[in-house]
Amino acid sequence: MDKEVRRSRQQQEARERRSKRRKRVVLIERIVMIVVCLALLGGGSLLAYNMLPQTKVAKQLKEASELLETANYEDAIASCEEALAIDSTSVQAYRTMAGAYLTQEEITTAEQVLYQGWESTQDESLLQYYCTVILNEAVADINNQACTLNTLDKCISVLEKDPDNADAFRLLDVCYERLFGAFPEQEGLLCETQMNGTCGFKVYQDLMLRLLLVYEANSTDELLSQVVQFAAPGTEDIRLDVEHLAEYKELLSRISTYTQDEAVMQLLACTQKALEMQTFFGEAFAIFESGEYAPIRDFMNKEEYIAIRDAFIDGSMEYWYGQTYIPVSREKMKFIKEESGWMFAFADYDEYNETAGVINVWGVKQEDAGVQRLCISYEPAGEAEYPHTTYEFIYLYSNVQIGNEYVPQMNYRFETRVETEEGTTTQLIGDWGGEHEWSTEF
What we know:
- This protein is of the alpha+beta class and 442 residues long.
- It has a domain of 166 residues.
- The chain is built from 14 helices and 12 strands.
- The strands form 3 sheets. The protein has a 7-stranded antiparallel β-sheet with strand order 2-5-8-9-10-11-12.
């Protein structure tokens, strides 16, 4: 009985010892597992931190900054590009890259980077950086006495992005003085070839339409005053190719919907009048260019032609400038600022001898037997200064050869003068188209 009790006690004690050992092993295993997990957790956190996008961007930007210090611009730009590939909204990456391009004087590329950055981030500092770079270019043009329509383009480009930019407004005023002020740097600005070989007026027209769009989206008095001063400048004259006359009128007409500025309205009236004269005298040009001159007599007797002549004689002609012999041509013209306001004039043969032909209206008071003379002349195109031909058509009171006598009466006279280096030869046809037509040469 005692043996069985002892055996049972021993077995129980053995079980307890085994149980304690197992508990210690489990505890050790758990501790080891916790230590291992903690170790793994710590290492994983470090790995995860190093893989964060912000960390990778910061690393690339740090590399870019260090590369810039050693003037390694290409690699610095590459680092910025890698940063942007990770985070396309990194403002610092755009700024650093633009700075690298500016240091290399690749200004256009820098502007593109800054504008792209602003589009991607809408960060105001990038927009202002972009505007500053462009305006600095405009300042350089002005300081180098090289202010052109391209300079004006830069100022307007800034206003398109930032219509309240005070620096852009100040530079616009400087551009205006250089281009259209009292002493403009470039005469005939709208006629000359400008940016990229484009006609000066076409460049000007595009700039004005862009400036108008800025105003229409941001209707401030400051913007409108800029539109007005560039559309109707204070210079003594504005030179223009006649082929752009209708486009200039259209531009002024659009501006007139926003302002009744006196200069704008006068120039608008000038363009309208000039276009009407181009249309009216188109018939006369067709007659002269045909070589069949007889129909010019009917043209001279039109009420509209007589009204034009009389308006010049009595000084009542509006907007059209001229005295005595008033040219009409189809290539060049100018607007002239008089004390009374703006007027226009077409170029005569001396002002532009490459013309396809010039008509001259005779606006001089000259009566014969109480009848005011009707006169018109035409100078055709010439390849050189000489010979220079002038055709004159006059309805006047003069002698007509009837039989062997000269009888004074109203009749048409057709005179052809040819100027050469040696002198002038004249062919005169009296009673031109009449029953007693006669001719002489001297």
